[in-house]
Description:
Blueprint: H1 15-27, H2 31-43, H3 47-50, H4 55-59, E1 63-67, E2 74-78, H5 81-93, H6 115-128, H7 140-153, H8 158-168, H9 173-180, H10 182-192
Antiparallel strand pairs: 1-2
Helix pairs in contact: 1-2, 2-5, 2-7, 7-8, 8-9
Amino acid sequence: MAKKGSNTTTSYIEWGEVQLLISRLERDKNYKFCLLVACGVYTGLRISDLLQLKYSDILGGETFVKIEKKTGKRREIKVNQQLRELVQRVYEAQSVQDIEKCMFLNKYGTKPIDRCYVNSQLKGIVRKYRIRTGGNISSHTFRKSLGRRVMEVNNYSNESLILLSEVFGHSNPSITMRYLGIRQQEVLGVYDSLSV
Length: 196
């Protein structure tokens, strides 16, 4: 439980910083978190679904289907070419023999790592690589970074907000705006508009 008055809202990482983090993790052979960050920002999956990914999901075709754990909804995800190439490199570098193997197994290879472990490790990774963030880091950071990137590339258009609400499984775009902190950003921008 968070301390009273503490900020528990998860932040996002700017797209350039995310790409830098992924490349540094790959360079340092921290393949598990390299793939976790990449799969997270390129798919927008919740951590419960992300941790269940197999190599075959990414390498098996142009798209894959996930039944979301939280909502039970069916989601078809297109695999980004950069993500496919990264997963292929890591798959080969680790000499993985079984394409049906889970990508995020614990150190014993018996089951996927869990959300608490991911969150604690992410904090250390962000510190180690001096990645700039706007606040707290957690597994939600992946989804928020994807959302912010899509909004940025599409000039914060209503259409991109509607598409993101579909991707995130939100019931309406206002929830997506709140999730991404868009409204708060606009409210804070009011103060900047007072300058002459």
